[in-house]
């Protein structure tokens, strides 16, 4: 039974290997055909006059730049769509933050001082104050209320 299983696995691997080899051969054939076409085009351009060679080179460069430009436009469109999506998400999150802040101001009074004291205690553990107090201007009413209580 083990030998049959190993033989079956070996045959499966051999079949996969042969399929991969065939795909690679086809790919090599296509590349060879493309190379031959490019060589023929190159030989034809060498037979042209210098002015026509320059014109042909310019046409090829214009084609290349046009394709590159189209790729960049496509990328720009994707980035703009992503930007719009992110802006919408930001608005949603900002609304949630505002709703959360509004809900915090409606918390019953007996819970708020305890939460503030916990917050102040955490701040004191994080910093070593030495006579001066640093705060944001918008935190001033909260600071005054905490000092009074």
TrEMBL record:
<feature type="coiled-coil region">
    <location>
        <begin position="3"/>
        <end position="103"/>
    </location>
</feature>
<keyword id="KW-0175">Coiled coil</keyword>
<protein>
    <submittedName>
        <fullName>MYO5B protein</fullName>
    </submittedName>
</protein>
């Amino acid at each position: 039974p083990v030998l049959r299983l190993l033989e079956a696995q070996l045959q499966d691997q051999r079949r996969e290997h042969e399929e991969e080899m065939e795909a690679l051969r086809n790919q090599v054939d296509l590349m060879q055909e493309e190379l031959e076409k490019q060589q023929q085009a190159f030989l034809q351009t060498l037979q042209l006059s210098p002015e026509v060679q320059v014109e042909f080179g310019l046409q090829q460069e214009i084609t290349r730049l046009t394709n590159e430009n189209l790729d960049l436009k496509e990328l720009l469109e994707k980035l703009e769509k992503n930007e719009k999506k992110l802006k919408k998400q930001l608005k949603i999150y900002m609304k949630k933050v505002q709703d959360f802040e509004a809900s915090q101001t409606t918390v019953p009074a007996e819970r708020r001082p305890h939460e503030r004291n916990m917050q102040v205690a955490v701040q004191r553990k994080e910093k070593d104050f030495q006579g001066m107090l640093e705060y944001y201007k918008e935190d001033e009413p909260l600071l005054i209320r905490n000092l009074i209580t």
